[in-house]
Write a structure and sequence with these properties.
The chain has 708 residues and is mainly alpha-helical. It has 31 helices and 7 strands. The strands form 2 sheets. A 5-stranded parallel β-sheet has the order 2-3-4-1-5, sandwiched between helices. Strands 6-7 form a two-stranded antiparallel sheet.
Length: 708
C-alpha cells in the first residue's frame, strides 16, 4: 500500500460539499445540536433504478402463447413466496432474448424496483461462470457499496437476497446452462427469466415454468418479411421459400431482410438462387438443426464492402465476447475501420449493446455469426491472423494501463508506460476521469481476461505480466476474485518465463491479497513466502514493503498483533523517502500496536502519521488515521479527545465523499457514546448512520453486531 503498488486507499473518495463541523479548533469537544454539530442530516439521494434489459424489436409476430405464459408467471410471482421463474428454451437465433426483451418492455411498469440483466455466455469459460462476480455486479447496480459486498459466494448470495427482499424486480439471465448457476442468482422476490438452448430440468423440478420457443412458422415468417419489404416486392411463395431456407430463425431472416432492404433492386428470387446454389460444406454451423445458416450468412457476407469483410474476419481474432470501435480499429490496424461496423450491425450479424457508462459504444457477435466469421478468417494466412491478435493484445495493454493510471494514480509500476512502447502502439481510449476509467475496466473485464488467456497460450509472456499488473486497479476496486486469481496465476508463470523476479514478487503479492480477502490464509501465506524468497535478488525496496505490508495484514487476521507490528515496521522502513508510504505504514503500525495492547506507542506513531500527512497534503489518509487515533484515545481513557478525533474523521470523510469511512467513524463514535452513557451523542450518531446506511445500500446492523 505504502508504495502505491498494492494500494488499499479508500477509492470511493470524490469531491464533496462543505465540511461537517464536530469539534473546535484545538481538538476539544464541541456541543452537539439537534442537527449533529451544525450539519443537517441530508436526504437520501435518488438512486438510478437499473433498467438493463436490451431494447426490444418493434417487429414481433406469432409469439402470443409465449407472452401469455410470461404474464401467468408474473401474476403468480409477484404475490407468492419467492420469485416467479420462467425457463425459456429454444435454438440459437430463434429469438429468446428478443421475446424476453419485448415482454419486459411491456411489463416495465410492474417492476418499479428495476430490471437486472446479464448474459452468462459472455463470462463462461470451459463451461463455468464466476457467479460471485455476477452477484457482485447486481449488488452494485442495486446501490450496495463495494465495502459491504462480502467476498464469498455464499455471503454475496445472502446479501443479494436481503437486498431484493420485498422488491418488485425483474432479473433476466440470458444464456444459462445449469440449474445451479440460476439458483445462485435468484432474488428473494420478483421474477426471473432464464434463457437457454436446452431445457434445464433442474429448474423445472424447482417449479420454474418451462416455455419452449419454436422457430417462426412459414405464415408468421412471411408476414414478418412482408412488413419489411412492403407489398409487391415478392410473391408469397417466394417469401415462404425464404422462410423455409432460414428455418424460421429470426436471426437468419433479419440478416437476409437487411440485405434486401439495403439493395432495393435485389429480388427475392435472386437471393433464393444464391442460397440454393451456394457450394459450402454443411457442418454444425451450416446445418444448424436442419437450417442452412451458413448459406444465409455467406450471401450476406458477399454483399459487404471489402473493408467490411476484412473487419468481419479480423474481429474474429478477438478472443473476448464484446468489442468497441477502438478495438475494431486496433484489430485491423486501420484507424477508420470502425466506420464499417455499421454494415455488420445493419446485417444483424453484429449487435450494439446498450451503452455501459464509459462513453464508448460496445458490440458483440451473435454466437452463430462469430462461428461464421471465424470460418472465413481461416482463409486468411496464419501470419495475418496472428498479427491481428497481436494488435488486439497491444490495444488492451495500452487501454488497461491508461485506465489503471487514472484509477490509482502514481503507484509503483514495473511495466512502464505502455502508451509509449513504440510508434505502432494503438491509441488508448479517452476517459473523463477516474470513475469512467474504472467503469471501462469493469465493462471490459471478460475481454481483458480472454485476451490474457490468449496471450498466455501463445507464450507472449511479457504482455501477460504487464497486462496483469494493470488489472490491479480493477480487482482492488471491484473484487472479481475468480478472475483476480486466474490472471495472477498466469502472470506468475509469465514473469518466471521472462526472468523478472520483481514482476513475480508483484504478482505473488497481489495474488496473496486475493486469498487474504477470501480468508484463505494458508494460500496467502504460501504466496507471500515464495515472494519473500525472491526479495534478496530484487533491487527496489518498495517491493519488500508491499510484501511485508501484506504479511502484517495476514498476522492481524490471524490474531498475531506482535508479528504484525514487526511486519509493518519493516514495511515503513522500506518506504523511506515516500511520504505517502510512510503515512500508510504508520497507520497500519498504529492499528497493530493498539491490537497488541500498546496504546501509548500507537498514539505516538499515529500523531507522527497525521503530521506527515498534513505536511504532504495527503488528506485522503486523514479519516483513516483519525478513526484509529480515536479508538486509541478511548482505550487510554481520554474520552473527550477520542470524540474530537472521531468527529474530525466524520467531518473530513464527509467532505471527501468517503462515505464508508464516515460510517466507520460514526460507528466508533457511537461505541464511545454507549460506553460513556452519552445518550445525545449516541442518538445523533445513530441518526446519521441510518442515513449513511441507506446511501450505502445496506441495512442498519442490530445493536452490538459487527459490520463485515
Amino acid at each position: 500500500m505504502g508504495d502505491r503498488g498494492e494500494d488499499t486507499r479508500d477509492t470511493t473518495a470524490e469531491d464533496g460539499g462543505p465540511g461537517n463541523g464536530f469539534a473546535d479548533g484545538d481538538g476539544h469537544r464541541a456541543p452537539l445540536g439537534r442537527d449533529f454539530g451544525g450539519v443537517a442530516l441530508a436526504p437520501v439521494p435518488t438512486r438510478l433504478i437499473p433498467r438493463q434489459i436490451p431494447p426490444s424489436h418493434r417487429d414481433f409476430v406469432n409469439r402470443d402463447a409465449e407472452l401469455r405464459a410470461l404474464e401467468e408467471v408474473l401474476a403468480g410471482g409477484l404475490h407468492g413466496p419467492g420469485p416467479g421463474v420462467v425457463a425459456l428454451t429454444g435454438l440459437g437465433g430463434v429469438g429468446k432474448t428478443a421475446l424476453a426483451a419485448h415482454w419486459a418492455a411491456r411489463a416495465a411498469g410492474r417492476f418499479p424496483d428495476g430490471q437486472l440483466y446479464v448474459d452468462l455466455g459472455q463470462s463462461r469459460f470451459e463451461g463455468t461462470i464466476d457467479v460471485g462476480s455476477v452477484l457482485g455486479a447486481f449488488l452494485r447496480d442495486l446501490g450496495v457499496d463495494e465495502a459491504y459486498i462480502p467476498p464469498t459466494l455464499a455471503g454475496r448470495a445472502a446479501t443479494f437476497r436481503s437486498a431484493t427482499a420485498g422488491r418488485r424486480l425483474l432479473v433476466f439471465l440470458d444464456n444459462a446452462r445449469h440449474a445451479a448457476e440460476v439458483r445462485a442468482l435468484l432474488p428473494a422476490s420478483g421474477m426471473v427469466i432464464a434463457t437457454s438452448r436446452t431445457r434445464i430440468d433442474g429448474l423445472i423440478l424447482d417449479g420454474a415454468r418451462a416455455v419452449v420457443l419454436d422457430p417462426l412458422s412459414v405464415p408468421a415468417g412471411t408476414l414478418l418479411i412482408r412488413r419489411w419489404l412492403g407489398a409487391g416486392r415478392a410473391a408469397d411463395g417466394e417469401l415462404a421459400e425464404l422462410v423455409r431456407l432460414c428455418g424460421g430463425l429470426p436471426l437468419a431472416l433479419r440478416a437476409v431482410g437487411a440485405r434486401l432492404i439495403r439493395r432495393r433492386r435485389l429480388s427475392v428470387d435472386r437471393v433464393l438462387t444464391e442460397l440454393a446454389d451456394a457450394e459450402h460444406g454443411l457442418d454444425a454451423l451450416a446445418n444448424h438443426e436442419g437450417v442452412h445458416v451458413e448459406r444465409v450468412f455467406d450471401a450476406v457476407y458477399d454483399s459487404f464492402s471489402p473493408a467490411a469483410q476484412r473487419l468481419y474476419r479480423m474481429l474474429a481474432a478477438h478472443p473476448g465476447p464484446t468489442f468497441t470501435p477502438a478495438l475494431a480499429a486496433a484489430a485491423t490496424g486501420e484507424p477508420d475501420a470502425a466506420a464499417h461496423l455499421d454494415e455488420l450491425v445493419d446485417a444483424h450479424l453484429v449487435e450494439e449493446i446498450d451503452p455501459d457508462g464509459t462513453g464508448e459504444e460496445r458490440h458483440r457477435f451473435h454466437d452463430l455469426a462469430r462461428l461464421h466469421a471465424r470460418r472465413h478468417a481461416l482463409r486468411d494466412p496464419e501470419p495475418e491472423r496472428e498479427a491481428a491478435l497481436r494488435r488486439i493484445v497491444a490495444y488492451h495493454l495500452v487501454a488497461a494501463d491508461t485506465a489503471d493510471r487514472l484509477v490509482l494514480g502514481s503507484r509503483l509500476r514495473l511495466g512502464g508506460d505502455a502508451s509509449t512502447a513504440s510508434a505502432a502502439t494503438p491509441t488508448a481510449p479517452r476517459f473523463a476521469g477516474r470513475a469512467e476509467a474504472l467503469d471501462w475496466l469493469d465493462a471490459e473485464r471478460a475481454d481483458l481476461l480472454a485476451v490474457l488467456r490468449a496471450a498466455a497460450s501463445r507464450g507472449w509472456h511479457d504482455a501477460v505480466w504487464r497486462l496483469c499488473e494493470s488489472l490491479w486497479a480493477l480487482y482492488h476496486s471491484r473484487k472479481h476474485y475468480a478472475d483476480w486469481i486466474e490472471s495472477h496465476q498466469l502472470g506468475i508463470v509469465a514473469a518466471q518465463w521472462e526472468r523478472r523476479p520483481d514482476a513475480e514478487v508483484r504478482m505473488r503479492n497481489q495474488l496473496a491479497r486475493a486469498f487474504y480477502e477470501l480468508r484463505d490464509h494458508e494460500r496467502a501465506e504460501t504466496e507471500l513466502r515464495r515472494a519473500e524468497e525472491l526479495l534478496p535478488i530484487v533491487s527496489d525496496p518498495r517491493l519488500s514493503g508491499v510484501v511485508w505490508e501484506t504479511q502484517g495484514l495476514l498476522h492481524l487476521a490471524r490474531s498475531s498483533p506482535e508479528d504484525a507490528v514487526r511486519s509493518f515496521s519493516r514495511a515503513r522502513e522500506a518506504n523511506a523517502g515516500d511520504a505517502h508510504g510512510i503515512v500508510v505504514q504508520s497507520y497500519n503500525l498504529g492499528g497493530a500496536l493498539l491490537a497488541a495492547g500498546r496504546p501509548d506507542e500507537a498514539l505516538r506513531v499515529l500523531d507522527e502519521a497525521l503530521a506527515t500527512a498534513d505536511a504532504a497534503g495527503d488528506e485522503a489518509m486523514r479519516p483513516r488515521i483519525a478513526i484509529v487515533r480515536g479508538r486509541v484515545q478511548h482505550t487510554l481513557g481520554a474520552t473527550d479527545r477520542a470524540v474530537a478525533s472521531l468527529t474530525e474523521a466524520v467531518r473530513t470523510a464527509a467532505r471527501l465523499g468517503q462515505h464508508v469511512k464516515e460510517a466507520q467513524a460514526l460507528e466508533a463514535l457511537v461505541e464511545v457514546a454507549v460506553h460513556t452513557g452519552d445518550a445525545a451523542l449516541e442518538q445523533h450518531g445513530r441518526a446519521r448512520l441510518g442515513v449513511l446506511y441507506r446511501e450505502l445500500g445496506v441495512p442498519a446492523p442490530e445493536p452490538g453486531a459487527d459490520r463485515p
